[in-house]
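Archive maintenance. Older records in this collection stored only the sequence; we are now back-filling the structure field for every entry so that each record is complete. The fields below show one back-filled record exactly as it appears after the update. Entries are processed alphabetically, and Clavaminate synthase-like protein is next in the queue.

ARCHIVE ENTRY
Title: Clavaminate synthase-like protein
Organism field: Heliocybe sulcata
Length field: 545
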Amino acid sequence: MAQAGYQGWTLTTAEDGLDRISPSIAHADFLSSYVLGRKPAVFTSHFTDSLCRWTDLDYLNDKAGSSIVKVERLDTSTGGFGSGLPRLEMPFREFLAKLKAEGEEVEMYLTTQYDEEAETSKDNLPELFTCPPPCNALKDDFPLRPSILQSLVPHQVNLWLGRSRAQSSKASSSDEAIDWTQSHSSGLHHDHHDNLYVLLSGFKRFVLFPPSAHPHLAFYGSASGAQVYANGVVAYEGDCMGPDALSARDRWGWETRRLQRVVNELKKKRKKEKAATKGNLKFKLKGIGRQKTALEMELEIAEQALEDAEDKYLDAIGEEALDGADMKDDFDALGDMLGGADEGLTASGDGMDDASSVAETASVAGSTSSRTTGKGKSKAREVDGVTEPPSFSKIPAYVLHTKLGLPSGSVPVSKSEEGSIGYEDADLKSLKPIVVYLEPGQMLYLPASWIHEVSSASRPRVSAPFQKRSRAECAGGDLADVHMAFNYWFYPPDNIGDANQKDTRGIYEMQELFDYLGSVIEERWKGSEEAASSGNASSKRMRMS
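Back-filled structure field:
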C-alpha cells in the first residue's frame, strides 16, 4: 500500500472545481498559488499563437513530414489507447496521409515518442530533456520554457495526434454538444512530471484525482509497494525515484558532473591566486604558519562534496545491480561519466518517463511515459502478455465512467471481470474526483502524479474537415474529427514547504543541481537551433532526438 504523504491541494467540497485563469497571470503568483501549492488549473487561452498553425496538416507535412514516428493502434478490447501493444513505425507524412483518409486511420494515434535502444548517453549519463520527432522539426514554433513556468526545468515535449469517430449532429461547441459515447479513453494513470497540456483540436474530458487517492485506485504498481511524496510524486518499489522524478543514479551522476566542473573552476582560480602571490614571503615559506585562503577552503569543501557525490553515485549503481540491471562495473561507469563531454546530453526518451505518454488516448495529449524500463525507473508489469506500467490503474475506463455517472465510449466490463480484480465496491465519488472539460485554445496545468483519465471526442461535422484555418478560427475551432495537443513535462519541484514563496529560487531541494541541468538543456537547445540553421555536421552531435 502507498504511503500517503501528499501535502498539496485537494478538493474541499463537491462544488469546487479548478480555477480558470489567464496565461497573463504573473509568474510569481502562478508559482506560489499553483506550482508550489500543487494545484491544477485551466488556462483560458494559449501562451503563443504559433502553435495554431499546426492544425493545418499541410503545414505539419511541409515542416516535419520526413520525421520517423511510432504510431499506436487502438486496443479493440477496451476501446482505448495506452495498452502497451506494439507500435508501428512510419514517416510522419504517411501518418498524416492516413489521418486524411477514410477507414482504419481512426484506430491509429501518435503518442509519446521514445527510443528503446538509447536510454543513456555514451558517457553513462541519463538523458535530461527529450524533444522527439516530429517536435524536433517544429521547435521554431514553441519556446523551451513558457514564461509562466520559467522556474521549472523542462523534461520533455510531445505532440499528440489522432482521430476519433466523427459526429454528425448539428450543435454548438459546448461540452453538452459532444457525444462522449463516441470518445476514446487514455485509461486511468498518473505521470511523474508536471504537465502543461495545450489543446489544439478536439475536445477532452479529464477525470482527476489527487495523489492522495493513489492507495484506493488499484494501480499495477501498488502490489509491490509505493510511496507518495509530499509534492505528489509516486515512486514504486525498485525504481529509486525521488520527489524530483530523478532516480538516485541520475541525480548523483549529474551532481558528480556538476561538482567536477566546480572543482575544476576553483583549481584554475587557485592557480591564478598562487601565481599572483608568487613573490610574497609567506608563500615562499611553503605555507608554514599561514592560514588557508578563502579560495583554498572553498576548494576543500567542493572536493569533499564531489567525493560524497561520487560515493552516492556508486551506491546507486550498486543498488540497481542488485535489482538485476545490466550495469557496467561501478568504477568503469564513474570513469565514463567523469571522462565524458562537460555537458553530455542526449535526447532520446526517458525510458519509463511515466506510464502515460503512450496512453493519452486518441487525443489525450498530456500525460507521459514510455512503456519500456529505463535506468532507475519503474519496471512495467506483464499482464496477459501485455506490458502494463505500474503507474496505470487496473480500473477500466468504462467502470470509472459508470461509477461517476459519466457517458462512456469505452468497452463495457462484465460483472465477473469487474469482481475478479476487486474494485467493484470502490467508492470513487468519496475520493473527490474533479471532472474538467477542455476545448481547443485552452490549456491544463497538472502537477506531477495527479491521477487522471482523459476521454477524447470530436465535435459534430459542421464544416469540411482538414481545411486550413486562420489564427482567429483556430483558437475556437477544430479539424472535425482530428485530435491534436502539445504538451510539456517538467521536473516537479520538491521544495514546496512554503506555498507562499514568491522567490523563483529554491523550488528544488537541490537547486544548484537543477540550475546546472537547466543550463545544460538550454545550451543544447540553442546549439541544435544554430546547427539546424547552418546545416553543418555539428547538428548530429547536438541532435535532440
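Update note: The radius of gyration is 25 Å. Residues 248-339 form one domain.
Entry marked complete.
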